[in-house]
Design brief:
56% helix, 12% strand, alpha/beta, 5-stranded parallel beta sheet
Length: 200
């Protein structure tokens, strides 16, 4: 069976989504990078969360901060809440619900001036809503990577928060643009903080 047509259509769909997205999210990406840089210069950290594939995107972002994106430079403080399987399952088991798996960790780890990096490529999730509420309780800023179908998160954001909303016909396209946004954010943060850093 020849799957070329399926593959070609996926590539074409991605190209079209990129072309339609850049004008809508370029400015929010720039604003989000400034929020992140300000927090890092104030010795604050970034706490990342998401469900399923979005947990992977959140963890990718945290990995780039802790390790590196494209250049050697000092590590940046970030952590991915879903990466700690023992805490996530303990909270879920203790409360009988996954609704508090992120908010409980945020109340323990979040500090004023930190940034919550929240990723959602699918329908609304109660645990992400509660995470944003907990972040605001801790006087944290929020950078939310969202999608056109989920308007619930946007209603929770304050004037100091930033939303990168991706409109796409299918979730895989949203995930792809979210990943591109992560790469752009990391590049802007590295460039702003370190320029062409070279440790010798």
């Amino acid at each position: 069976m020849d799957f070329y047509q399926i593959i070609a259509e996926n590539f074409q769909s991605t190209i079209e989504t990129i072309a339609l997205s850049v004008d809508n999210i370029a400015e929010p990406i720039q604003s989000a990078s400034q929020v992140l840089v300000t927090a890092l210069l104030d010795d604050r950290k970034v706490i990342c969360c998401g469900n399923g594939v979005d947990a992977c995107t959140a963890q990718l972002f945290a990995n780039y901060f802790i390790s590196r994106f494209e250049q050697e430079r000092p590590a940046l403080p970030a952590l991915a809440l879903a990466a700690d399987g023992s805490s996530v399952t303990a909270i879920g088991q203790g409360s009988g619900s996954i609704s508090d798996i992120f908010s409980r960790q945020l109340r323990a780890l979040g500090q004023a001036g930190d940034v919550l990096f929240c990723v959602n490529s699918s329908a609304g999730a109660d645990n992400l809503v509660r995470a944003i509420q907990a972040a605001h309780e801790r006087n944290m800023h929020v950078v939310a990577l969202s999608n056109g179908e989920d308007t619930g998160l946007a209603t929770l954001l304050s004037a100091d928060d930033v939303e990168l909303r991706v409109q796409a016909p299918r979730q895989p396209r949203v995930v792809e643009i979210h990943t591109m946004a992560v790469h752009s954010l990391c590049e802007l943060v590295e460039h702003t903080l370190f320029g062409s850093y070279n440790q010798e």
